[in-house]
Here is the input.
Amino acid sequence: MLQFFKKGSSILGMNSRNLEYIRPFNLQRSKKIADDKLLSKRILKKNNISVPSLIAKIRNYEDLENFDWQILPPSFVLKPNRGFGGEGIIVVYGKKKDRNDAWIKADGSLISINDLKNHIRNILDGSFSLSNIPDTAFFEERLKLLKLFKPYTFKGIPDIRVIVFNKIPVMAMLRLPTQESGGKANLQQGAIGVGIDMASGTTTTAIQGKNKFIEKVPGTRMTLSGIKIPQWKDILALAVKTQEISRLGYLGADIAIDKEKGPVILELNARPGLSIQLANKTGLKERLERIAGLNIKTQEKGIRMGMDLFGGEIQEEVEDISGKKIIGTVEKVKLFGKDEKEIEVEAKIDTGAYSSSIDVELAKNLGYENLLNFFSSLEFPQNFSREEAKKIEEDLRKKYLGQHPDLSNIVIVYSSHGNSIRPAVKLNFSINGILISTEVNIIERSELAKSMIVGKKNLTKFLIDVNKLK
Amino acid sequence: METTISPIISFFIGKGVPFETIVLILMLPIIATFIAFLRQVVGIKAFGIYTPLIITFAFLATNGIRYGIVIFIAVLALGMIMRFVLKPFRLLYLPRVAIMVSVVAILILLMLALGGNFQRTGLAAVSIFPILIMITLVEKFVTVQIEKGNRTAMILAIETLFISIAGYYIASWKILIKFIILYPWIILLIIPINIFLGKWTGLRLIEYFRFKNILKKD
Here is the structure.
């Protein structure tokens, strides 16, 4: 129990965040920039930081009456300038055909000029701003979703929250919009937050909403850990650069990755939330305390420090020295079958086996059904001894190889279940980004948990860490 | 009574300040500190400091806390219902709140009449100021509803009710009242206590609960 309270000092709480980080490091002037989206957009753009481009702004009722609706492109986003928590944002995906006064929203419903006007009036009246002060509405370009994130995302666009303190990126999380959050990347509204390893940019643990730990995207089989975020170093660089420009000493930068533009700054947060600690299952305070007062001269140094201090640096180093990738005992494998079929499965990494084998069902899916039918029509000797096997194998090869285009070999495998005669095919697959061209044999594995095992013949380029989680 | 009263209090009474008023005013800093403590150390947010404070005093000013709680709950329930009723009209903020306030006012009037009907004259005897305060509570509630959603608004409202009830019992605690009129200068202690609270950087009790999964790790 005492231990429990002692460990509390590793976590950043509301009191400490406000008093020790926001108050001294985020000055009023900088906070003003963060709270004013148009202003931060302008300042960042002037400093060559990529931001979603502004289409138009509406400052008051007069602007609204005189607004030329035809300047709007087919897709855009309407935002309140001082909105918070993702409230009051409307995302429009396309123009309704045959109508020039209506667009289509994220959920497929229509939105007319009148609806937009009404919404803008609400924005102008301050319905979405803190303490209801009158606000400005603006239109900006809609960012295009990266293909990688598509299966993980419900509508909307995911973003990456990076906490930067003292020029060092300290912690990060990927925020995925869900059905519950209505396509918004806001944890309070039920979005998913996934922790990120600072060194590699690979996702780790995940939460949905305020405190529900999850492993998969709800309702799907998409595992949330192990997603490799593209352009990771660029993202960290962008976050650090943004901190310098905004002069927010304790910054939460929201960065989205656009299909064409790459990483762009969506928003600056002068009071970033604390849930990022849950997504990463790690306290923020111990990290902040480690780097407080360090004199970081360059951005590169800051990024390097963040990656080294707060990432799985050991793994990266071992990989650098040995030139080999580290994998766990279960890894995702992408198989490339016939007719450009691609299937991803979880495979058992088995150093006890010599060659790799795949399950009959998986082989069928990869396009080898015809071969399997052919193979099962053949007659094989039964109950032979190990001494006889060598001879039988040779005979079978002589007899059948070349009779089917896919059949590259026939092998007899000795396993704990006894001997089995298996067909083998030429197959390419990739583990951890490394492509392997090999011959795999096919066997009934349906009673086993994994539909593939990778044998030591194909593991020469890897080191296996039994502690590594997939 | 005379023997246990501080000269400072006697001075004010001598100047014609009602005794009740003096006690209430001296209770104000204590309740405020109590609310600050709940926020910084425990983590109960409620609707800021003003709303629970003023509701506490509204409770103190109604005849018995029962009626105060009934009105409070009635106001919030109506606030919830009205949000759904008014949603399809898509009204702007101020007119929407004005409608809410009007409906709440009418409801309270009906409640008072109903109370009279059932011989609950205590309800009708509640003075106008606490009722007005309760009505304006609806604005606070609506604002939070818009900014943070229904669930949060409800949680904060319940927290506010909880704090106000606790505040009510603190402020009407006989021993405390006696103590304060005997040693009114004790109120000055409030300042160092609040300086301490204002510098408190430890985790709030609620945060230990929120981050329990990190704390329990390994």
